[in-house]
Amino acid sequence: MAEHAHTKAVASRLARVAGHVRAVQRMVEAGRPCAEVLVQMAAVRSALDRAAKVLLADHLEHCVLDTSRGGSPRRNLADLRKALERFVS
What we know:
By secondary structure, this protein is mainly alpha-helical. The chain has one domain (7-88): Methane Monooxygenase Hydroxylase, Chain G, domain 1, CATH 1.20.58.1000. 79% of the residues lie in helices and 0% in strands. Helix 1 (7-29) runs antiparallel to helix 2 (34-64) and helix 2 (34-64) runs antiparallel to helix 3 (73-88). The longest helix is centred in the middle third of the chain and has 31 residues, at 34-64. The relative contact order is 0.13. The model has no long low-confidence stretch (mean pLDDT 87).
C-alpha cells in the first residue's frame, strides 16, 4: 500500500504532542499552579486536534477518494463515517 501523503507530518505533530504531554506531567509533579497546567493541557488538546485534522485530510485524499485500489466509494464512506463517530464521541 502506498504511503499516505501526510504520514511524516502527522508523526512529527504527534511527537511534539508527546513531548508537550511529558512537559505538562513534569509541571504537575513540580506542583505548578493548576491554572498553568490547565492552559498547557488545552494547548496539548489543540495540538492533538490539529494533528487529527491533517490525518483526516490525508484519509479523505488517500482512502476515501482513491477507489483505484478496488475499494468501493460506499465502503470507503462507511469506514470514514465509523472513524468520525469514534473520533468525535
